[in-house]
Amino acid sequence: MNKKLLITAFVLTLTVNSIVFTQSPDEFRIEQLPNGTIRILGFLDTQKKRSDTMVIPNRISGIPVTSIGDDAFYFQLQRSDFPTFPNGLETIILPDTLREIGDNAFSHFTQQRGGKLNGLVIPRSVTKIGDSAFFDATRQSSPQILVLPSSVKEVGVCAFYSWNIGELYIESVFQIIGKPLGYGEEPFSSINSSSLQKITFPANWPDSTLVKLGLPTGFINYYKSQGKKAGTYVRNGQLWLYSGAASSPPDPRSTVRTSEQSQQTQPQQQQQNNQEISKFFGIWLWDGQMKITISDSNNLKLELFFNNSGYQWVYFNYQIDSWTLSTPSKEVADRGYTKGYKLSGKVVSNGGYFPWIGNQINDTPNLFIYIDNNGKSLTFASGDNKYTGWFFTKQ
Description:
Layout: H1 2-22, E1 28-32, E2 38-43, E3 53-55, E4 59-60, E5 63-68, H2 74-78, E6 91-93, E7 100-101, E8 128-129, E9 144-148, E10 154-156, E11 165-170, E12 175-177, E13 198-201, H3 207-210, H4 217-225, E14 231-236, E15 239-244, H5 260-278, E16 282-286, E17 290-296, E18 299-305, E19 312-325, H6 330-333, E20 337-352, H7 356-361, E21 367-372, E22 377-382, E23 391-394
Parallel strand pairs: 2-5, 3-6, 5-7, 7-8, 8-10, 9-11, 10-12, 11-13
Antiparallel strand pairs: 1-2, 4-5, 13-14, 14-15, 16-17, 16-23, 17-18, 18-19, 19-20, 20-21, 21-22, 22-23
């Protein structure tokens, strides 16, 4: 009896947390596309108050979200009487299943109660960004890092109209789509050119569309004078200069380090983080019934056995993409767990009696793990970072 209740509690914890982070199937108006995937058309409840962050789920009821429709959030964000984001809207989190962002999908973002977009990440699954998709989204923001990954093949006119961009990374040539609008016909029309300090650009952009991007004329002329070679171009006063091969784009959500001191301390800090992460590696056991194996910084496996036998009720392999320092919640800290990380990643295989749990975990943006001061005990949390009641000891 106790075993059954225990397993049920585990399932419910993961289920509740996945619903929180997917914002539930009832959060959005949706339609199912001919290929079976989902397109989001906007909010269902236009009177519901939300935080300053909008999370677009990667799945709804287990079905991938691949598209955000035309005008999906345009009118809802622009209306002055719309109470959805009473404190303003600052962050959009897009899923890695997304392929298309429609025309005007998030247009006039900043006009909704003083919202200002920060740290937008275009997933590497996206192939098309529509006309005016993020029109006027960063007028009130500090200079942003914008990365258009190589997956992007089409970008609409005025997609990033009036953006305040500090660093721009365009990884490959794309086509400009859409008809000219009254206020511009370039993807980067009316951007704040004085803020733009760095452009990483591909080679041999066709002349026919190069001048239609909306980038500074000085950059365009210098790029052509350098034989249109790929690489990073930086502003030096009123001039543009070639600084070398294309650099890897930073995370747009991170603070851009510009001082010499921060550049020197970054490798040291990374080395320290790696040493802390290594303390989590190994096999952790709970009462002979559950086992967590962390073989390296990229792989985590969880197994839940039935009645101390070899029969697996639940197992999943979780591919870790990143480790980020995490402050434990009160429930976790009160148990003596002080060192922890938030893991971002995805379940790459799952099974057992409840194989669907692995799919639900994929709907949760992150997992949390903590160890105590002596490094001999670990606890595992998901979704809301609350204490779960599972104590593991190092094998």
